[in-house]
DNA sequence: TTGAAAGCGTTACCAA
DNA sequence: TTGGTAACGCTTTCAA
């Protein structure tokens, strides 16, 4: 009937005392050291659960020099793209007994630096960067590339391992899809060009247009959320692009959120989708399956990216080495109604 | 020109040695102890930045017994409702130098328990519950209600402080709005009824219907995501409710995600929104502003809930007492086109 | 104003 | 198989 008889604070020494053994024995028993016989281990475990003892992680961390925590740095966890990546990271981490801290920089360099410092102070063993930047406090930390990985967005400085899709190839597929449907006046609402990801998409769009003998028509948005997409589309419709007064018959958006905003702007102008104007998104958010019309998009395996990122990071930390430098995950063209009927296979070879 | 000359590992003792003072002086200087004169403090700070020294947080935590970290427990961070709450929590926490861990239980009790244990092991100083349950390992921890707060969902066990809106009143507003537009056959797609939040909404819906002399028509969904909403609406349309073969002229959905799925199902049946059937959501997600049609909804101040929750928790931790037991935040009816024109003020007094 | 020293609760090495 | 014990790097009390 022994319950966690709420005393001040149970330490390992208390458990050892009750069990009539030394703390070192308790410590070993709790980490299933093979030298401790089963009888002893069971007896100790029983006392542990009766007393409600819990290992003081801060003492353990000080002693071992490891925290078993990692930090995910991103700009903005409320951007719909990220939570699923974070959840993927958590899936793997929690299986391995590793905690996940989340830090949203919100564009503040000060916050980014503060987060980077967490690695120096031993709060975390590693970093997963979703924002494409290594905090500058870490730039000249020796071997920092062994405890940092980048996911989705590559990092300019240094040689940080990266998990991503081939953004250029994904855009190839998007543009070719639209071309195959007969469109010739195809615009691109691009994301922030300081991001290599959005730059890669925009560059690939231009390449594809030019090799099809068509004029690229790019509207760069400063962010990649709904509002930005709405405004970008409005200005795109107002401007009339290369040939003044013309409007695109198809718009490839750098994110699904941009696409949702842009489709709204188009409808407000009385345009029918896809009858008057077709849309393609990027990301494959769940909401795209039920939008009006459902959105043709490039599905990015967000959860899988999280899995891969966490695996790679935890492996690198465990082995103290840098393994793969780049892991590419497959994307998928999801054909829905925002572009009309499909006339090509979902995935080129 | 001294740079962080990458030596093995700089400790406070090293800094003290270089400065020609004792570690205790360094420790004091770094926490701006008034006893340390400015000259000394500046000299020490200079050495700190030259050597790239960073305080070992694990040692500090062991010594002080505080971690300056909190943990947010939720079911599923990829449900669109939560990230903004988490971001609100982070806003406040990072200002106060507190780190935020995120734990998604994904419905697993084992994971929930593991997270609860983080409080016992000193990994975190407090918990913010977004899932309405206190991990059972904590139920008989003395004074656990001083380091746990619940946000958005109340907790059945014990007296955990709560930040929320008045879900019942919010539903009053939603139902009255729909009634005022002339609807009489109003259905409710409810969320999981083990959650007090969704139960409060469903109960309030029924109360309002009955006092209007109308028959409640509730379809309970097991979750509150898009797919669930889609399926619930399909089955609702198939069943025909009280009067077989009838269909509602308005549907109040327990979440915006449910509403998006449900609207899709309605459109698939060829119903016009709001001409044939009106919809109301709950949450006020950004996407609702650009859905087709834009969704009338109850906006819940998610970020503000996060702010309030973090403030309350950090205050309780600092003062070692339990302050307010309940803080109610205002909600807002956002009238858009999914119900047709508004005929009542946005907020009743 | 500064220094010395005693822990904080573990882990892991060395003996037994 | 077990025990004793020295760290881990910091904070803080007590003296000087």
Describe the structure.
The structure is a homodimer of 349-residue chains. The first copy, chain A, is of the alpha/beta class. The first copy, chain A, has three domains: 12-63, 434 Repressor (Amino-terminal Domain), CATH 1.10.260; 66-164 and 302-329, Rossmann fold (3-Layer(aba) Sandwich), CATH 3.40.50; 167-299, Rossmann fold (3-Layer(aba) Sandwich). Helices cover 40% and strands 15% of the residues of chain A. Chain A contains eleven helices and twelve strands. Chain A has helices at residues 12-19, 23-30, 38-51, 57-64, 82-95, 109-120, 167-180, 196-211, 226-239, 256-268, 302-319; strands at residues 69-74, 99-104, 126-129, 148-151, 162-164, 186-190, 218-220, 250-253, 278-283, 296-299, 326-328, 332-334. A six-stranded parallel β-sheet of chain A has the order 2-1-3-4-5-11, sandwiched between helices. Chain A has a six-stranded mixed β-sheet with strand order 7-6-8-9-10-12, with helices on both faces. In chain A, strand 6, helix 8 and strand 7 form a beta-alpha-beta unit. In chain A, helix 5 (82-95) packs across helix 11 (302-319), helix 7 (167-180) runs parallel beside helix 8 and helix 9 (226-239) packs across helix 10 (256-268). Chain A starts with 11 loop residues before the first helix and ends in a 15-residue tail after the last strand. Residues 1-7 and 342-349 of chain A have low confidence and may be disordered. Chain A binds a DNA duplex (16 and 16 nucleotides) through helix 2 and helix 4.
């Amino acid at each position: 009937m022994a319950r966690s008889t709420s005393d001040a604070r149970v330490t390992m020494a208390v458990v050892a005392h009750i069990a009539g053994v030394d703390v070192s024995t308790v410590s070993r028993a709790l980490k299933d050291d093979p030298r401790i016989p089963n009888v002893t281990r069971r007896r100790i475990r029983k006392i542990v659960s009766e007393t409600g003892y819990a290992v003081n992680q801060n003492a353990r961390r000080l002693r071992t020099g490891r925290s078993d925590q990692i930090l995910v740095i991103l700009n903005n966890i409320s951007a719909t793209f990220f939570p699923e990546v974070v959840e993927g990271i958590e899936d793997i981490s929690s299986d391995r007994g590793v905690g996940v801290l989340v830090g949203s920089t919100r564009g503040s360099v000060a916050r980014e630096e503060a987060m980077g410092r967490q690695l120096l102070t031993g709060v975390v063993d590693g970093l997963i960067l979703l924002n494409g930047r290594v905090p500058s406090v870490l730039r000249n930390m020796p071997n920092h590339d062994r405890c940092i990985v980048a996911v989705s967005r590559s990092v300019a400085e240094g040689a940080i391992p990266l998990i991503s899709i081939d953004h250029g190839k994904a855009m190839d597929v998007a543009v070719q899809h639209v071309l195959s449907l007969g469109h010739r006046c195809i615009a691109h609402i691009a994301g922030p060009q300081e991001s290599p990801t959005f730059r890669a998409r925009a560059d690939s769009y231009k390449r594809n247009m030019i090799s099809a003998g068509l004029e690229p028509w790019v509207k760069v948005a400063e962010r990649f959320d709904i509002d930005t997409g709405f405004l970008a589309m409005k200005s795109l419709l107002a401007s009339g692009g290369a040939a003044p007064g013309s409007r695109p018959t198809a718009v490839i958006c750098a994110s699904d959120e941009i696409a949702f905003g842009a489709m709204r702007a188009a409808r407000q102008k009385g345009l029918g989708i896809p009858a008057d104007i077709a849309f393609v998104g990027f990301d494959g958010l769940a909401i795209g399956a039920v939008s009006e019309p459902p959105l043709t998009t490039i599905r990015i395996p967000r959860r899988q990216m999280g899995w891969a990122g966490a695996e790679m990071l935890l492996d690198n930390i465990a082995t103290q080495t840098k393994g793969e430098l780049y892991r590419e995950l497959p994307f998928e063209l999801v054909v829905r109604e925002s572009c009309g009927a499909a006339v090509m296979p979902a995935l080129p070879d």
